[in-house]
Design goal:
Number of domains: 2
CATH superfamily of the largest domain: P-loop containing nucleotide triphosphate hydrolases
CATH architecture of the largest domain: 3-Layer(aba) Sandwich
Radius of gyration: 20 Å
CATH class of the largest domain: Alpha Beta
Order of helices and strands: EHEHEHEHHHHHHHEHHHHEH
Structural class: alpha/beta
Strand order of the largest sheet: 3-2-4-1-5-6
CATH topology of the largest domain: Rossmann fold
Number of helices: 15
């Protein structure tokens, strides 16, 4: 087995984590690291799992996918939800398999909930119940998601305070957990915490990297430029193909993805194309802000900044040098 996977018999295997806000350069850095180390990339992205959603998710192209083994990309139809629990199950199995072959797993992406679930473990909550979920969605259709939020607040005020009234997926799941089990999601999470989690922190030696700019305005410009480039590359046609299927709708996690939801609303006649593009860019910037909020509180994180104090951008070589310095310094 490679020394990258483990040093001495009995030591915990090693893994790399590369996270950061959207449009920060994670994919480019992951591919560059793969040129220098025997690793395989495990995607930590809730949109990349879906087939047919390539442009708007900034999915690696065919050449990039062929250059290094990638996992958890194109594994679901957009009609099939993919949860954090699904991710943890799949990621755990993949990491073990990669290590067994003497390679290093590199978890790369921007879905912070997936990272948190992987590292800290998930409470053993009840599985999804399609019938109960359908009842909740019917309530939302008839009276709106704020009413679902109100009902959640009556039984689980802690979760209701944590979840925005418009965040339909999380609201639905929290109320579903209570209706199925009679135990609130907050109680499940407290139980998990008392039991000590049981995630990757306990079983792997980790080098945690984050990439992003010091200047928030730089990230905003990159987001706008990238989304406009996606439109030019045919994102609207990609969304139109999904819309034509007839079995997809805006309440699915896939279609709610930032950048897709707004174009879907345009195709439904709710927004002009100009408004949809503007709202998508704003929503992507808001996503980046939430990602940065998560990352500021992340423990043991090594930051790789893509810009200097004077505003100058680092070269690709300088970014790679920073990353390799952190990795070497942690004996991985």
């Amino acid at each position: 087995m490679s020394e990258l996977a483990t040093n001495n018999l009995g030591e915990r295997p090693k893994a790399l984590l590369l996270m950061g806000p959207t449009a920060s350069g994670k994919t480019d850095l992951a591919l560059a690291l793969a040129e220098r180390m025997p690793l395989e990339i495990i995607s930590v992205d809730s949109a990349l799992v879906y087939r047919g959603m390539d442009i708007g998710s900034a999915k690696p192209n065919a050449e990039e996918l062929a250059a290094v083994p990638h996992h958890l990309i194109d594994i679901r139809d957009p009609a099939e939800p993919y949860s954090a629990a699904d991710f943890v199950r799949d990621a755990e199995a993949l990491a073990a398999d990669i290590v067994s072959r003497g390679k290093l797993p590199l978890f790369a992406g921007g879905t912070m909930l997936y990272f948190k679930a992987l590292l800290e473990g998930l409470a053993d909550m009840p599985p999804a119940d399609p019938q109960v979920r359908a009842q909740i969605e019917a309530l939302a259709t008839a009276e709106g998601w704020p009413e679902v939020h109100r009902q959640l607040a009556l039984v689980d005020p802690e979760s209701a305070q944590r979840i925005h009234p418009n965040h339909s997926q999380r609201l639905s799941r929290a109320l579903e957990v209570y209706k199925v089990s009679g135990v609130t999601m907050s109680e499940w999470r407290h139980k998990q915490h008392e039991q000590g989690g049981g995630g990757f922190f306990d079983r792997y030696q980790l080098c945690q990297l984050a990439i992003g700019p010091r200047d928030r305005s730089l990230l905003h410009r990159r987001i706008e430029q990238r989304y406009n480039a996606m439109i030019e590359a045919g994102l609207l046609e990609e969304v139109r193909a999904l819309h034509r299927r007839g079995d997809l709708h805006i309440d699915l996690p896939s279609i709610r993805a930032v950048g897709y939801r707004q174009l879907w609303q345009h195709l439904e006649g709710q927004l002009t194309l100009t408004d949809a593009i503007e709202k998508a860019i704003v929503a992507t910037r808001q996503l980046a802000k939430r990602q940065l909020t998560w990352l500021r509180a992340w423990p043991e994180l090594n930051w790789i900044y893509i810009d200097k104090d004077d505003g100058q951008l680092l070269t690709k070589a300088e970014i790679i040098q920073q990353a390799m310095g952190f990795i070497s310094g942690m004996d991985i």
